């Protein structure tokens, strides 16, 4: 123990000295009071958001020739488009290179050069690719999409290769032994084991690409960073604040959606609000399905999915029933399926009977909804009563145990 303590002390002392040396090397110093006041004023101007710039473009000064003004919604849409296009292109090529760089999928002679190539791609920052593509294809969103696709290839190829290294090759060998061809072996042996993790990494990379678009715009590969720079240089701080605020909100929304999708693919779980929404929809539809059962005089003791299947059958029966006379209306088909004996040549009578059946169906729906509300209230009240009883029993047992311990201590 003492030796370990001495080693840790020496280690943290070295780290502390390195930290102090780095602070001295970067010329760390505080600004003057006037610059702090100017900074505070700029922050207040940024917080005074110009909400009109969300929808309308505010032209920049004529002195700034490189920047063009757009509405914030247009900029965010362009940012999303660049991120999606770069992610999709990069993910497709990364999938192929990930397979070719895995020594367990292909021969090491092929895998090693591809691995070196993807490592070299990954070593260069994305904004450097943006510079290259700006010179190659010109300033604009397309250059940003190409730069993001190269960065996506470098990152996802590494993750894909690591996924391929961990798959269960016993399944692959068993599929080969069953006589499946190479495509079928890949489909059911490799792709089936890796698809959820691969999709998860694609979504994760999309988050990174969405945030990188602002950086790429500064070098001309997209309008977001270019506009941020232009607004700041021209002292259009309210417009700058609107763009930053919208970007933060949009980023949070994108992250929330991507995290939800990643959890769904990796753990096969829905967020609580989605489960609650599905539950609400099922409860709403269940009353309609039950009413359809009662209308057709079927057994009401069916589960949700059984009633759903019967309701789908009724709809298909009405729309897909083969009738010799093509001029017979769906109302007649519906009433015939209900086995209602009337004169079907009398259109007035058919319409009247159809309206009666529909009103009866609505009445059944209302009855089932009301009964469900009563049942839910009863269950909730019973649950509350059970909780109260359990709480009182717990407190009583706790008091009895305390009394027993006190009597034992006295003895």
TrEMBL record:
**What's one Pfam family here?**
BPD_transp_1
Give the CC-aspect GO terms.
plasma membrane
- Keywords (A to Z) from UniProt: Cell membrane, Membrane, Transmembrane, Transmembrane helix, Transport
Q: Name one GO biological process term.
A: transmembrane transport
Topology relative to the membrane: Multi-pass membrane protein
Which residue range or ranges hold the ABC transmembrane type-1 domain?
76-258
Which SUPFAM superfamilies does UniProt cross-reference here?
MetI-like (SSF161098)
| TM spans (from-to) | 6-23, 75-99, 105-124, 131-156, 235-254
InterPro entries noted in UniProt: MetI-like, MetI-like_sf
Localisation per UniProt entry: Cell membrane
What family classification does the UniProt entry report for this protein?
Belongs to the binding-protein-dependent transport system permease family.
Q: What is this protein called?
A: Alkylphosphonate ABC transporter permease
Q: What organism does the record attribute this protein to?
A: Mycoplasma capricolum subsp. capripneumoniae 87001
């Amino acid at each position: 123990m003492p030796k370990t303590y001495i080693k840790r002390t020496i280690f943290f002392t070295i780290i502390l000295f390195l930290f102090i040396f780095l602070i001295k090397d970067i010329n760390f110093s505080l600004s003057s009071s006037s610059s702090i006041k100017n900074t505070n004023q700029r922050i207040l101007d940024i917080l005074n958001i110009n909400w009109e710039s969300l929808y309308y473009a505010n032209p920049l000064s004529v002195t700034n020739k490189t920047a063009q003004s757009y509405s914030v919604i247009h900029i965010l849409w362009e940012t999303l488009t660049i991120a999606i296009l770069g992610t999709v292109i990069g993910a497709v090529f990364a999938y192929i290179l990930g397979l070719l760089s895995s020594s367990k999928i292909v021969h090491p002679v092929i895998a090693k050069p591809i691995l070196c190539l993807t490592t070299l791609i990954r070593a260069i920052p994305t904004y450097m690719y943006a510079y290259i593509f700006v010179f190659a294809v010109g300033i604009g969103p397309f250059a940003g999409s190409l730069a993001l696709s190269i960065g996506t290839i470098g990152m996802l190829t590494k993750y894909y290769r690591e996924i391929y290294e961990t798959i269960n090759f016993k399944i692959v060998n068993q599929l080969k032994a069953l006589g499946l061809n190479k495509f079928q072996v890949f489909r059911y042996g490799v792709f089936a084991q890796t698809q959820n993790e691969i999709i998860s990494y694609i979504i994760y990379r999309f988050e990174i690409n969405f945030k990188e678009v602002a950086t790429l715009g500064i070098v001309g590969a997209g309008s977001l960073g270019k506009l941020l720079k232009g607004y700041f240089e021209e002292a259009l701080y309210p417009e700058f604040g609107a763009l930053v605020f919208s970007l933060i909100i949009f980023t949070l929304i994108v992250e929330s959606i991507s995290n939800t999708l990643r959890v769904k693919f990796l753990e096969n779980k829905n967020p609580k609000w989605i489960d609650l929404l599905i539950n609400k929809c099922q409860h709403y539809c269940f009353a309609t399905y039950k009413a359809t059962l009662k209308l057709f005089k079927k057994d009401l003791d069916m589960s949700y999915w059984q009633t759903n299947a019967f309701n789908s059958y009724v709809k298909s029966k009405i729309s897909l029933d083969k009738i010799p006379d093509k001029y017979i209306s769906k109302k007649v088909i519906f009433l015939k399926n209900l086995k209602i004996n009337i004169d079907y040549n009398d259109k007035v009578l058919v319409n009247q009977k159809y309206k009666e059946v529909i009103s009866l169906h609505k009445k059944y729906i209302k009855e089932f909804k009301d009964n469900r509300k009563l049942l839910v209230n009863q269950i909730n009240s019973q649950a509350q009563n059970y909780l109260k009883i359990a709480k009182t029993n717990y407190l009583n047992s706790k008091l009895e145990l305390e009394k027993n311990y006190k009597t034992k201590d006295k003895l």
